Amino acid sequence: MRYELMVGLRYTRARRRNRFISINSLVSMIGIAVGVWALIVVLSVMNGFQKEVRERILGVASHVQISAVGNRLSDWQSIAKLAVQHPRVLATAPFVQAQAMLAAGQAVRGALVRGILPGQEEKVADFGQYMRLGTLDALKPGGFGVILGADLARALMVLPGDKVALVAPQGLVTPAGVIPRLKQFTVVGIFEAGIADADAALALVHMQDAQTLYQLGDSVSGVRLKLDDLFAARTVARELLAQLPQDTYAQDWTRTHANFFRAVEIEKRMMFIILTLIVLVAAINIISTLVVAVKDKQADIAILRTLGARPGSVMQIFIVQGMIIGVIGVLVGVLAGVVTALNIDVIVPAIESVLGFKFLSKDVYLIPELPSDLQAADVLAITLMAFALSFVATLYPSWSAARLNPAEALRYE
């Protein structure tokens, strides 16, 4: 073992004459551990929320959507056949999408009407698992049934079996003026996806009924695709775009919901920066600990220098002493953070039962449990950041120890 490492470890283990050094070292170690612990847990929870919301959004949206200029795709069968030949495309489903007004009694609400083929829609979306009343199979061609989002159904005060009037914006031109097309639909189901845009404004009808209502003939609004890897959506959309006709285009979910996911990424970065300040405060404590240690060991430093120790060797001794504090703090923090992140579904309910209230009430929040998604890249980044701050904190005190004049240090000894 190099003597610099041996002396540095001995200084760390030795019983210090100055208790301030021991207390300050412990505080620095605890500060680093708490900072690393908090960073890992918070980022894991944010990753969990992002993953949960992404899955819910993509449960009612699509990985890739192929549409045509004017929202009218005529030869959709050939487009779907072309898309499904891509190795990453698992399933396709045509759809018709347009705005409408829904009325039931005195209640009137605007809605986004989506015409679907129930059998194919279940392959690209998760509406089946979000159904609270009824099933997608209840949508029959010519039956003019409608499945409403839970919030939309609540606003209209309807249940399965009730009638709603659907008013299409495209009207019939008559001598008396433009008369909007109106058709009565029967509510056959209610879904709740946990996404406000879907639950409060989406109505599902059979595709044939939507084509009839909006006078599209055999045309559709587009084709929705499901991929084997949702993170490959941008690449797949770009590759399909090169093969599609000129009047069609492809959009992936990272574009249609870009603002939301960009906001989450910004929040995650800001939380990383804010919580890094905890580790920075603990690293500053390492500086004060080593400054006092250098002052306390002036005579030892002078003797080492007179015995032939180089200034660089003296510097390494105190770097070792400071890094011991940092390493122990980081390792304890990483261990505590990983254990907490992996067991947050057990820890949070236990705390809630002790305190007697829920942190995330079902009446207020869409996601009533704290989700956690521990990612190795985040743990590695936090660990390296904490090690780096600990190392930088040791440089100034170690440099001042290396510059100590042995004659001045031993003058009053």
Distance between the termini: 30 Å
Cα-based radius of gyration, to the nearest Å: 32 Å
Tell me, rounded to a whole number, the average pLDDT.
Answer: 80
Portion in beta strands: 15-25%
Largest sheet, order of strands side by side? 2-3-8-5-7-6
Elements, N to C (H/E): HHEHEEHHEEHEEHEHEHEHHHHHHH
Task: List the total number of helices.
Answer: 16
Main sheet makeup: 6 strands, mixed, barrel
DSSP, total strands: 10
Given as residue ranges, the uncertain stretches (5+ residues, pLDDT < 50) are none
Look at the helices and sheets and give the structural class. Answer: alpha+beta
Quaternary state of this entry equals single chain
* Number of separate structural domains: 2
Net shape = elongated
Helix content: 55-70%
Description:
This protein has 16 helices and 10 strands. It has helices at 3-13, 19-60, 76-84, 118-124, 127-130, 150-156, 196-201, 207-213, 233-241, 253-256, 258-296, 298-306, 311-342, 344-355, 376-402, 406-409; strands at 64-68, 89-104, 107-116, 131-133, 145-149, 163-174, 177-191, 202-206, 222-227, 248-252. Helix 13 runs antiparallel to helix 15 (376-402). With 413 residues, it is of the alpha+beta class. It has a 6-stranded mixed β-barrel, surrounded by 4 helices. The model has no long low-confidence stretch (mean pLDDT 80).
